[in-house]
Amino acid sequence: RADYRAWFAYHPRVDLETNMEKAPTYAWIASSDRNDTVRAAISVLAEGIGAMFGETPWVSALATDPDGETGKRSVGPNAADGANGADSGILVGTFAANERLREIFGVEAAELGREGFAIRTKEGVTAIGAHTPVGALYGAFHLLRLLATGADPSGHEVFERPANKLRMINQWDNIDGSIERGYAGPSIFYRDDAIDFEPARIRDYARLLASVGLNAIAINNVNVHRLESRFVTEDYLPRLAELAAIFRVYGIKLLLSVNFAAPIEVGGLPTADPLDEAVQQWWHERAAAIYEAIPDFCGFLVKADSENRPGPFTYGRGHAEGANMLADALGRHGGLVVWRCFVYNCKQDWRDRKTDRARAAYDHFMPLDGAFRDNVVLQIKNGPMDFQAREPVSPLLGAMERTNQVVEFQITQEYTGQQRHLCYLVPQWKTVLDFETHALGGAAPVKRIADGSVHGRTLGGFAAVSNIGADPNWTGHPLAQANLYGYGRLAWNPELSAEAIAEEWALQTFGANRRVADAVVGMLMESPDIYESYTAPLGVGWMVNPNHHYGPNVDGYEYDKWGTYHFADRDGVGVDRTVRSGTGYAGQYRGSNANMYESLADCPDELLLFFHHVPYGHRLKSGRTVIQHIYDTHFDGAQRAGELAQRWASLEGLVAADVYDEALARFREQAEHAKEWRDRINTYFYRKSGVPDEQGRTIY
Ligand code: BDP
């Protein structure tokens, strides 16, 4: 299937006949490195170039043969001025192993850091140089990306290094083979209560992740139950080590989600108190065993004291004590603790209007600033609630000055259409990353908080919940692949625009047909606004069915303990989160952000109901009343959802038939489902408010 290959589709270059000589620009690939990662770089280059240019480059034996002669000669340069002198080719690898790469890049190489790379065309050689094998691999993928998006093959000059140190993906996969919030089939890692995988599939996933620069993977669900709690034992470590070995080739390190109560549940101790010596000792032993099996193990991911998961609170201890205890166990091996800030009271009472789930992360963690070990990094969800289509940016991001932090996104579309609706999430993530936090009073957008530069932290980055499963096309909706691709690209370089990423993805996936690329980019770029238009209005969120979270249910969570309310009544709607009269959440922001959200006049329309409870007749900045805005956007959103299906249908014959059919079926479902959303939301607000639609459209 075409879509299994995802963005490695490698269509023949359309300019081949017109612009290029018969002699291929890339006749050979060579390297003096002999390691699996550089070998992987060579093999992706050979495959991609072969497919795009119609002729597979000759690969030097030294580069492929693990037992080949050691370092006597540098094959690339010799090839270039030796037997293959007439042809040009690619020299790829590390500076340490390839003298010619050192000559080509000279002192400029110093700037590249551990994972960066440079590409330069010189005297017929396309040189891809890096300090590490994985840097060379990233360079190889980058060259392929350039070629697949139409770059001139005859000359390259690129210097790249990742903005973020940690570029993580979180699998929410369970050992029974299910995936929490997975919408693309069962797990590729587990089946029937066992670690069970096809190495080739894992390798292909690793390739996808590495091709966009991701470098760490938490391999099991953050909700760690039963058998998964035992992953830290010898029962499971050998299999996990096999997984780690596959990912290692692609520069990706393994993390495990751990159960804070494992000392009790697995170790048979009477307590999991982080200050108890036997507990500490138990984790030290587990860490030693893990590093024995997986020497480059990245660390633990921990969800503690949240949504009924165990944590230090049981013992009267705090998050810092819990995280530091694990950090001490891992630290001597160079490991990290990634501690999640998604912590709130899920047993709230809607009658108590003072509690506010949105406040929770900040209230819990802000007082702990500076209390965490250097090898602890806090993982903070992008918004204060839970991955809604529209939320403000978490006020915790940037607030802590002496604590490592990563921003957490959700690629899997739990609240954004579950990969049955099209919702390109990169624009949302860009909004978050560009948000000015006013930390330290200066220019401090979230992207500079995450990369650590604002507060001078060396550890930081991105995490995101994966959207893949065992479906042949990885993501269910074929176009949902763009979200995985886009996440990785942003983690590498948050300056890329959502549109540029969409275009890169479309050209690589569907080939250089401008008509297809333009149509797909247009659909992707409009999709988040379309989705938002027919779902919960003006930032209020949560009007979904409880538990599975698909489809409209306006009061589904309204009287629920999880703290997710809209407070609609006959007079108005929205959550008063002001300091003046509400929950005080707006006061968690810094400087002008706090004033902006506090003020009814200044609060941006799209977040109005997140911060304020207003009458239905309240006028938005757009000039429309809130109630008319709800009606208009829902009619409009449902209509545009219907048009998506038609726009896709216009590409029939231009994209692979199976991909076309798969996506069309989903666009049709989205169109129908958007009408259901429209009708439920509009009817609800019409009945609550009694205000008719100005345009007299039918509301049931
Ligand atoms: C919510 C999901 C839930 C996760 C939780 C989390 O509904 O399944 O366990 O987030 O992030 O979005 O821990």
TrEMBL record:
Residue span(s) of domain Glycosyl hydrolase family 67 catalytic: 150-474
Domain Glycosyl hydrolase family 67 C-terminal: 475-697
Coiled coil: none
Domain spans labelled Alpha glucuronidase N-terminal: 6-143
Family indicated by similarity: Belongs to the glycosyl hydrolase 67 family.
Assembly and binders: Homodimer.
Protein name: Xylan alpha-1,2-glucuronidase
Source organism of the structure: Paenibacillus aurantiacus
